[in-house]
Amino acid sequence: MSVAAQAAHLPQLTAFLEQFWSSASLPPGGCPAFALALEELFANVVMHGSAGGALQQVEVSLALTPEGVTMTIEDDGPGFDPLSLPPPDLTASLAERPVGGLGVFLVRKMMDTVSYARVAGRNQVRMSKRLARAAGAEFA
Fold it and tell me: Taking the mean position of all CA atoms in its chain, how far away is CA 79?
């Protein structure tokens, strides 16, 4: 699914994820991790991905493999690897912590693998998680 990088499109992407999950008859307990990852990464593109006020496009694809589910989020914003950020200092007090940084940290903790690549002028974040039940289907 492809949408403009506007916060108003998050419910549409979430519905897309939920439809995929339901149609693949996946265990409901696995969907919240993907929903949170989708929300965090989409919000990052919306807030930080627009260069010079140009509206970016975000494409989300989901694939079901024998190992689990893979979600790929691509955008055509300026190159930026969110995985290059250092992990947040969780021992610091809330007053001492800078704003931001927890979303990508949570995504990395919830998923089995997370990777970034710059492909054909687009940012691509791919994440996978093993599930108890998975067959072979694809959604885009």
Answer: 16
